[in-house]
Write the structure tokens for this entry.
Amino acid sequence: MKRMIWAAALAASCALPEAAQQYYADYVEIAEPRQPGEVFLPTVPADIPDTEQWMTQNGMIGVRNVNKPTLVPVLPAGPSTGAAVIVAPGDGFLGLAIDHEGWQVARWLANHGIAAFVLKYRVLPTPRDNIQFRDENNAARNGGKASFAPPGNTPPPALADGLAALRHVRENAAAYGIDPGRVGFMGFSAGGFLTRSVVEHGRADAPNFAAPIYPSMAAMNVPANAPPMFVAIAADDFLLLREKGLPLVDSYRAAGAPLEFHLLANGGHGFGLALGTKGKASEDWITLLHRWMGVIGMLEPKGAPKP
């Protein structure tokens, strides 16, 4: 049922004003881009064959059929705050929008003194043939059928990769020049689902702060001592159609956990860093995140004197 709701809502969200117009994405296969400093996460054997496929989707770089998780550090070139954020791109757990929901966000954070780590986590398999994938994916987004579908929640392999990323960053904090007590996790869409999951199930590995961006808005099982959370979603995002009200916000507040929530007037789903959305409410959302990180004390060393 959750898959049916997701597909129906996604089709509705992709519809253009004219009834005759439909969602269409073109996919062009590309070679794997260079990713300096890429670190393998040992949640799978290192010697298994690599199945991932790189492509552009309407000009934006993405990857699918990921079966070997990795982490790419994007570190500040100038002064560092000592804070770190793991960035999890989304795409329905069927691929990763690793450019505009990963690398671009990481560069913005690094340019503001925050060490960023782009997580390439495992996703569900999709057809190897690029034309078949394109046609089925476009059909599904227009209300048709496909041989694959997104899951209702975070798959266990993706959760294991997210927790492994948190452990890696903390265990190597000195090498990265960061404070292991100021490691956050943020994600977009499916990456937002994953962000919720590392909070719910992380226990000792849970992040020190979390920022799910246009995530599932369903209620959470909020653990004791849940970290501060920042949530942003646009009012015209299809994911809001899945719930009555804002159960994520209500459950976090009911647990007494610290939360900042932004219901942006518009911006749709998948705005990423919001490049090219000038004039929309989603345009500068990341500045709100940055301010929030400062407010909760994540941009200065613990014990630093207050001005």
Summary: The helical segments are 2-14, 99-111, 130-141, 156-171, 173-176, 190-201, 247-254, 285-295. The chain has one domain: 31-125+151-295. The chain has a mean pLDDT of 90. Residues 31-125+151-295 form a domain with the Rossmann fold fold (CATH 3.40.50.1820).
